Amino acid sequence: MTTHNDDVDWDRWPIVDYLAENYRDLHPSDAAVIAHHSAFYRRLAPGSVGRSVEFGAGPNLYPLILAAAVSRRIDAVDAGAGNVAYLERQLVCGPESSWLPFHALCRRLNPDLPATLAGALAHVRVMHADVRELAPGGYELASMHFVAEGATEDFAEFADFCRAFVRCVVPGGWLVAAFMENMPTYRIGPASRWPGCPVDPRTVTEVFAPLTRDLTVTRIDTDPTLPDYGDSGMVLLTARAR
């Protein structure tokens, strides 16, 4: 049977295992994403974006750090209670030291970032909500990382998430995203199973081309330093909403 987003209990997302497998060290693939996104953010003036959104934030801090170079406010929106609690702890108690190398690389590639990790995260507001219910046109910029293709096994639902992502920004609003390439259903930690919808640059382009202008889609190869989830790399996107 095909697993859809609403079939999954996102409150059970295995945060400890996910962070241990992916973000306790700065992997080459993350460095490549940060380099790609930093080039995008350097095109925008510091503080020029009043409100941006991290669409399905999860416990990943580096997209929030990147957006702080241009955003006066960043809404980190996630449906999972555990992810929300983790993000709130990072803001209230101070970010874990494992995120310091991510901030250092982000700032080296874009000196417009706040000088400290805490300073970058000071722009963030955490929201416990379903991203599909975000009001249309509520943001000037939207960022999404490994969400639409990891929320469902159904391609039509993947496309629906992508449309909701574009819809949440104003016409002409900025979009930046990363997708796992050809990600199947996968495991995190010793047992937990999560949906995956295999996509590649061609399918991402087909979904976003009618919705956007100035669309660029590229990819990076699979990262041997990460667990083998069955993917073949990452697909990276920048665009503006039509």
Automatic annotation (TrEMBL):
One of its GO terms (molecular function) is methyltransferase activity. The keyword Methyltransferase applies. Keywords: Methyltransferase, Transferase. It comes from Streptomyces cylindrosporus. It comes from the Bacteria. One of its GO terms (biological process) is methylation. This is NNMT/PNMT/TEMT family class I SAM-dependent methyltransferase.
